[in-house]
Design goal:
about 300 residues, 8-stranded mixed beta sheet
Length: about 300
């Protein structure tokens, strides 16, 4: 065998080894690529001069795991927004937008998933962030005594997948406001050339399959996306919107990117949130009216059958 074929065999073996090594890295370390927790604070309620309450939620069965958050109260009669942030930063990086919701008349609860901010626990996983969102939901219901019909779940990009999972667990959530949400991690990988070289569907353990779940969500939905988003294409919100059952709405903010939708959308963004709130209330009243009508019809039917038997 000549030295030239040997060279190519060696080169091919090296390339295969490198490729396999990258696949193993993506499989075992994908959490480190997906979750980017930060313990540095950009802003705090004290800096903004906002009234707030510190929230600490112990994780059941985890003695060293605790969820930290801030509650920004607006008033006893206000609806509450459960704010679920994305895969980077922490509650401090999302406080300005939370304050924007508060200025619209909402109370806001922001939480950090395990490993983010002051929250304690193992490095985040898909399963854990779902659990952390459920802890916050149950805190609002049990500790704050807030009815589910007064809780809206608001989520920015990666938090959208968490909010969708939460709505599957608790279909009584009043509504979801999903900003810049993606269809799935696999779909995100397909639009990045570097990942197309690898069998992503086989390697993924953290799937965040929002498209596979959105069809089962019964809560009213408001999708918001910037048309110039170069991280999560706006087409993903459009795909989710088409797949979702009604009631649903879609708002596209022209020229807005991944992180400036609420700022660039400004008045239009705020108006859409308030209109969605009113729309949710109208849906609730219509449902309650339908329930009363059905209950009345059942009562008349039972009474009539009882008279016939008598």
């Amino acid at each position: 065998m000549s030295s030239v074929p040997k060279f190519f065999l060696t080169l091919g073996g090296l390339a295969a080894t490198i490729y396999l090594g990258i696949c193993l890295y993506l499989y075992f370390w994908q959490q480190r690529l997906i979750f980017l927790p930060s313990n540095r604070w950009e802003v705090t309620p004290t800096i903004l001069g906002v009234a707030y309450e510190e929230v600490w939620l112990p994780v059941p069965g985890q003695t060293r795991a605790t969820i930290h958050g801030w509650c920004l109260p607006k008033g006893p009669e206000s609806d509450v927004i459960l704010y679920l942030h994305g895969n980077g930063s922490n509650v401090g990086g999302n406080l300005n937008q939370a304050q924007q919701f508060r200025s619209l008349g909402f109370s806001v609860l922001l939480i950090d998933y395990r490993g983010y901010g002051h929250s304690k626990g193992n490095f985040p996983t898909e399963k854990q962030v779902y659990e952390d969102a459920r802890l916050a939901w149950n805190y609002l219901l049990r500790e704050r005594q807030i009815g589910p019909d007064h809780i809206l779940s608001t989520a920015i990009p990666w938090g959208g997948a968490i909010a969708i999972e939460l709505a599957l667990r608790y279909p009584e959530v009043a509504g979801l406001i999903l900003e810049g949400t993606f269809t799935s991690i696999q779909d995100l990988g397909q639009i990045r050339p570097a990942y197309r070289l690898f069998p992503i569907s086989w390697l993924l353990t953290q799937r965040f399959d929002s498209l596979g779940k959105i069809r089962a969500v019964r809560s009213p939905l408001l999708f918001i996306h910037g048309t110039a988003d170069d991280v999560v294409p706006a087409q993903m919100s459009e795909i989710l919107y088409e797949a979702a059952r009604s009631p649903k709405r879609l708002l596209l903010i022209p020229q807005a990117g991944h992180n400036n939708v609420s700022a660039l959308g400004a008045e239009r963004y705020s108006q859409a949130i308030l209109e969605f709130q009113r729309w949710v209330k109208a849906e609730q009243l219509a449902y309650q009216s339908l329930q009363r009508t059905e209950n009345k019809a059942i009562a008349i039917k039972v009474s009539t059958e009882a008279k016939i038997r008598a």
